Amino acid sequence: MGSQATKITAERLRDLWPDIRDLIRPRRFALALGFLLIGIKTVCSLVMPMSTKYLIDDVLGRHHYALLKYLVLATAGASIIQGGASYGLTQILSKAGQRMITELRRKVQAHVGRLPVSYYDTNKTGMLVSRIMSDVEGIRNLLGTGLVELAGGLLTASVALVVLLHISLSMTLIALAMIALFAVFLRHALKTIRPVFRERRKITAEVTGRLTESLSGVRVVKGYHAESREEQVFSGGVQRLLDNVLKSMTGMAGMSLSGTLLTGLVGATVMYMGARNVAAGAMTLGDFVRFTAFLAFLVVPVSQVVAIGTQLTEAIAGLERTREVLRERLEDDDPARTTMLATVRGDVEFNDVLFAYQAGKPVLHGISFTARPGTVTALIGSSGSGKSTVIGLIAGFYTATSGCVRVDGVDLSAVKLSSYRTQLGVVLQESFLFDGSIRANVAFGRPGATEEQVREACRIARVDEFAATFTDGYDTIVGERGVKLSGGQRQRVSIARAILADPRILILDEATSSLDSESEALIQEGLNYLMRGRTTFVIAHRLSTIRRADEILVLEEGRIIERGTHSSLFALRGRYWDLYTRQHGLETNLFLAPGEGDQEPAGESRETEGKPRDPDGLSGAIRLIRS
Question: Which terminus of the chain has fewer CB atoms gathered within 10 Å of its CB, N or C?
Fold first, then answer.
């Protein structure tokens, strides 16, 4: 079993070596200097135990007091040099280790940010945060004090072993036999405790993920009076973490106990044999004291391997988890993605597209349509009909399982998404704002925009109207997810952001469905400006936008069941007619007569004439229909 454990460890280290080498290579000079300093520190630490023999046998035994000052000067000088070497190690390697952590965090974050959306669909946000912030923390021991102390301890033990063999072969062999038994136990213990540390990382990521979700959704938690349930979930998570920590502490305590027993047994044995040798004249008192001092230099480093081995084990576990993330393929790393799009005209074509999130469970079936530059294509349908999936395919978040999505005649699965998304704009139902100023959020998609360009976008989206009411104007901090702004204000900032980005393809994903009539009227002008001259895709929310669409696609269960303009679909008296008349009947209490499909229904105009409107638009109508 022991040899098998060694083999597994060797395989893991061999597997991780390229990653370790890449981390160490840029800091090889700092590491080399660290090893030089550890060598100097080791030599200096041996001066005092070496001098004990001369102090006892020559100065005190033979009264050679002239030698005393040289011993004192040598010991003091060695102590000063040793202290300087220790200070240098901290300054050089510990700081280099922290810089390595920072660099690795940047690398992991940059990599995670470029992973496909499907990766985020299967991994919690909190888990990814833990990978970026926590897993890399222990890796500093690969370069910092852990590795160097291990090397220093081994060097010290090697020198001490040579001296001990020179003083007494028999006493040294007995001490080595005891240390060998301890080493066997230590190897088994480290093999047992390593999976515990790896499991701790996993539990920490899960608990952090759930806590992040709970805090982000605090309004939902409080709205459903679910504080107690969240407390129970979190309590269960931290209890698992506690159980893991206690288990590792038990293992650590066992290793510490064995180290203490080793020291005690070796010390007692040496005391007995040394006393007999001194009494028999086989060694001097000075040799005995020096043997005892150097034995400490042999035993203590072996005991330190417990702590250092734990640190390195933790570092290796963190490196393995970090490597798992870094080995995830980036969106643009697909060898099939070789085409760079220069300027997008906006021709979008779906050709018999089938898509499945899970193999064998398609959510889109044979979707085909064409959207030309400057046109508006509306997608309507009940929840789960496939509207958002179509939008996800247009945005390049997913790749068609079969069939083809083309942009300007180029298969989107062959396009470098970095060149495509710079010309793509998205306005979502729930506008996501960062915890920064209004100005910073508007300029998010175009950070190099001038102040005049930012203000012009804000004027068109009517952000200027409410920004002027704040003391700090455009420098007003909106809070996490924009909580300091109303829903309408957040949406206007989102529209201004899209206007400033000047995309060629625009996606409006229920951009006004959560707003009241007044807020919608305020931003409708900005939306009209934003859609002008662009290829626009709209997930239906307000029927005023749908009526003006060049093509309306009605989806049900992942299939397009109807398509056409408002007039043609209304005349068809199918699913679209059903949804349209039900919504307007709810809003105006008016039933449309046949042939009125191309007329503006009473109560339906750009302004609502003061009449109440369903704030949830079509989605609200569908829910009412189902109820």
Answer: C
521-524: long-range contacts at Cβ-Cβ below 8 A with a sequence spacing of 24 or more? 521/606, 521/607, 521/608, 522/462, 522/465, 522/488, 522/492, 523/461, 523/462, 523/488, 523/491, 523/492, 523/495, 524/606
Q: Which of 343, 341, 367, 369 is nearest to 354 (CA)?
A: 367
What residues contact 603, with CB distance under 8 A and at least 6 apart? Answer: 584, 587, 588, 590, 609, 611
Q: Which domains does the chain have, with CATH numbers?
A: 2-331 (1.20.1560.10), 351-423+503-626 (3.40.50.300)
Other residues' Cβ atoms within 10 Å of the Cβ of residue 455: 18
CA-to-CA distance for 430 and 163, rounded, in angstroms? 74
Q: Which two tokens stand for residue 301?
A: 């480093």
Angle, in degrees to the nearest 10, between helices 169-216 and 125-133? 140
Q: To 5 degrees, how large is the angle CA 160–CA 164–CA 168?
A: 180
The 8-class DSSP code of residue 14 comes to: H
Q: What are phi and psi of 116, to 5 degrees?
A: -65, 160
Alpha-carbon distances of 230 from 213, 220, 223, rounded to whole Å: 10, 11, 13
| Contact predicate 606/544, CB 8 Å | yes
The answer for residues whose C-beta is within 8 angstroms of residue 117's C-beta and 6 or more apart is 392, 397, 398
E strand segments, 424-481? 424-428
Cα angle 473, 477, 480; round to 5: 150
* Percent of the chain topping pLDDT 70: 80
Judge contact between 97 and 140, C-beta under 8 A: yes
- 97 near 311, Cβ under 8 Å? no
pTM: 0.63
Tens digits of per-residue pLDDT, 203-262?
A: 887 787 777 767 766 666 766 667 787 888 888 888 888 888 888 887 777 777 776 777
Q: Does the structure show a pLDDT above 80 at 94?
A: no
Dihedral sign for Cα 217, 219, 224, 225, please: positive
